[in-house]
Design brief:
Blueprint: H1 7-36, E1 59-60, H2 73-83, H3 87-100, H4 105-116, E2 122-128, H5 134-153, E3 162-168, H6 173-184, E4 189-193, H7 198-211, E5 214-217, E6 232-234, H8 239-253, E7 258-263, H9 268-283, E8 287-293, H10 301-310, E9 315-319, H11 325-335, E10 340-343, H12 350-356, E11 364-367, H13 378-387, H14 393-411, H15 415-423, E12 429-430, E13 435-436, E14 449-455, E15 463-467
Parallel strand pairs: 2-3, 2-4, 4-5, 5-6, 7-8, 7-9, 9-10, 10-11
Antiparallel strand pairs: 1-3, 11-14, 12-13, 14-15
Helix pairs in contact: 1-11, 1-12, 2-3, 2-4, 3-4, 4-5, 5-14, 6-7, 8-9, 10-11, 11-12, 14-15
Length: 469
């Protein structure tokens, strides 16, 4: 392969960059529809630029709405009825709201809570990045809402229903810490699900540890979370599992030895995935010949590709997070299929299909779970009936977090009992498609799922992510 691009190739690349910029400008509108269909989400949401509100105003069991974009008249009437403790009227209103939009998990959680009213209940909190990344927040809430609906319809935990309190942590460390303090100080909260990004989970973890409140994250994957606290668990596999799966695929399936890694030095998730992948590749005899910081102000995709071509790199590993996804896609476009592509779960995004297109063909991405690998499971069938469409891995992992807490509550319905049950060596719970088991580190014992980009029509972009055979 030539080490210097011809003028023709440079002109081609300039056109590709122009196309990329135009497409990224359009993706906000085009991607919105796809997000609403719940096929994808944002793996590591960006920090909100809005003024932070007091945590107390961002917590609700139904007496206030936290997702303005999902607010219908009937839903608002249901919220007002709960605030006035008129629970029968709230049930009527939320049922009407869900008939109009059955894909709204906040409305379903509030409906379930309204049906409980003033009865005795076990309370679980879910902290989601509503103010910063509403689409993944909705995906997480769908998993929680589905599990709450199923257990309450089955007469609850030993006859006691589950009530859910929703918290908007805005995917912000300081806000999440304050939210955690609020939950710790509420003796009725027996456990919590959250947070979204690894950095936020790491920041809030000491508060849960000090307050002896069990936390399960459905989406945080950084290896720094492993063994962080005996009160912190997660249902998404650690980056160690994702990195090992990608390294093994590179060395054994692709039969390639030389890689370059693109990452974000400002992201705990991205750093973690990069380091674990590098370790796994070197351990099995491969090489990582170059690293590129996507967050660097001097990063240039064109220059990076020229450099790795000179180094005879065979595989590009994209350990980007959401704020650097656009730069990672520049790499995809400039590469034009010349080197094989691997990616972490943030590449599982409609932008990859829409912007990458043919240049993203055969890219392999590691994610915790994929619907097409589990089409016949009860969870997949029930979720389709409930939400009217397919669900993402974030919904499945949030559902699994709820199932783990339900199993623990069945053993001992108290704060201390939940934690003690989950650290027992033989603890298991029936998850969405796999048994939920935790290692002593709090990590889930489960392999990552590899998916690849192939021609298809599910996404409407002409390409889909499908499980690697």
């Amino acid at each position: 392969m030539s080490q210097r691009m011809s003028q023709t190739n440079r002109n081609e690349t300039a056109k590709l960059f122009l196309t990329l910029l135009i497409t990224l400008g359009l993706v906000g509108a085009g991607g919105w529809w796809l997000f609403k269909q719940n096929l994808f989400g944002t793996p590591d949401g960006a920090r909100s630029t809005q003024t932070r509100q007091q945590t107390q105003t961002q917590l609700s069991s139904g007496e206030r709405g936290l997702i303005p974009s999902e607010m219908s008249q009937q839903k608002q009437m249901g919220i007002d009825a709960i605030a006035g403790r008129n629970y029968p009227q709230a049930v009527i209103n939320f049922e009407a709201a869900l008939r109009a939009d059955r894909n709204d998990p906040e409305a379903l959680i509030y409906l379930n809570n309204a049906r409980i009213g003033e009865q005795s209940s076990y309370k679980i909190a879910v902290s989601a990045p509503i103010g910063a990344s509403v689409n993944p927040a909705l995906e997480i809430l769908r998993g929680v809402a589905q599990a709450q609906t199923e257990i309450n319809q089955a007469n609850g935990v030993q006859g006691i229903p589950l009530k859910i309190v929703i918290v908007d942590d805005q995917n912000d460390a300081a806000t999440a810490q304050q939210a955690a303090k609020t939950l710790v100080n509420d003796p009725d909260v027996l456990a919590a699900i959250g947070h979204f990004s690894s950095g936020v989970t790491l920041a809030a973890a000491p508060v849960y540890d000090d307050g002896k409140l069990t936390l399960i994250s459905p989406t945080s994957t950084s290896v720094k979370i492993s063994g962080l606290s005996e009160f912190v668990f997660r249902t998404a596999p650690s980056d160690r599992f994702a990195a090992s799966a990608l390294a093994r695929y590179m060395l054994e399936e692709l039969q390639k030895q030389k890689a370059a890694v693109f990452f974000n030095s400002e992201s705990d998730y991205s750093q973690s995935l990069k380091e674990e992948f590098t370790t796994a590749v070197f351990s099995d005899g491969g090489q990582v010949l170059a690293e590129f910081d996507l967050a660097s102000p001097t990063f240039n995709a064109q220059n990076a590709i020229e450099q790795v071509i000179k180094q005879q790199v065979e595989v590009l590993m994209l350990a980007a997070n959401t704020p650097t996804l656009d730069r990672a896609l520049q790499v995809v476009v400039v590469n034009r299929g010349r080197m094989d592509l691997l990616g972490g779960d943030s590449l599982y995004n409609p932008k990859t299909l829409q912007v990458g297109g043919e240049a993203a063909m055969d890219m392999v991405v590691a994610i915790p779970w994929h619907l097409l690998a589990n089409t016949e499971s009860d969870f997949v069938q029930n979720s389709r009936k409930l939400w009217g469409g397919d669900v993402s891995w974030r919904t499945a992992m949030a559902y699994d977090a709820m199932q783990a807490l339900i199993a623990a509550l069945n053993r001992n319905p108290s704060r201390q009992g939940v934690q003690q049950a989950m650290v027992e060596a033989g603890f298991t719970a029936e998850g969405s498609t796999d048994i939920v088991r935790f290692l002593p580190s709090g990590d889930r014992k489960q392999a990552s799922q590899l998916v690849t980009v192939q021609p298809g029509e599910r996404s409407s972009f002409g390409y889909d992510f499908v499980p690697v055979p």
